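RECORD TYPE: inverse folding
INPUT: structure tokens
STRUCTURE:
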């Protein structure tokens, strides 16, 4: 870890603490050259494995962008989308996997999106559940109508 003050390539860890309910580690460091102290935060990096086999870092913003397309023209705020993105990330992290298939990310979006906006949910589900016909949409609509109301 390079010192942010003198750019020395070495530093000494003086204290480590678990943060964010175990999702990251906060470390206090000291530079042996200039003696200054600084803090670093280490966070586990989630990776998404695409269908093609390409591995990319998990980006909450990418989840939000994808859902935003499904929500176009719907009464969904940026705050709603940010909350949904956080819920999806929490769900993915709870799997305790370093690499998650892209399909699992899409499926993790469905429950909170269903609660947020049913039309956006159907738009999004048509991609991730591979709706191939009008009957698939009818089945999706029937499932929405038959689910217990939570509000």
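DESIGNED SEQUENCE:
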């Amino acid at each position: 870890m390079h010192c942010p003050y003198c750019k020395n390539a070495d530093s000494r860890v003086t204290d480590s603490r678990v943060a964010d309910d175990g999702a990251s580690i906060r470390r206090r460091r000291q530079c042996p050259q200039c003696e200054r102290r600084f803090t670093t935060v280490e966070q586990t990096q989630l990776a998404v494995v695409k269908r093609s086999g390409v591995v990319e870092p998990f980006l909450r913003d990418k989840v939000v962008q994808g859902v935003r397309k499904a929500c176009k023209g719907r009464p969904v705020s940026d705050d709603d989308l940010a909350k949904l993105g956080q819920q999806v990330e929490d769900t993915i992290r709870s799997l305790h996997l370093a690499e998650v298939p892209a399909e699992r990310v899409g499926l993790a979006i469905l429950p909170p999106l269903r609660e947020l906006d049913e039309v956006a949910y159907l738009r999004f589900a048509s991609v991730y559940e591979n709706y191939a016909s009008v009957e698939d949409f009818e089945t999706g609509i029937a499932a929405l109508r038959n689910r217990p109301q939570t509000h």
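NOTES: The chain has a mean pLDDT of 89.
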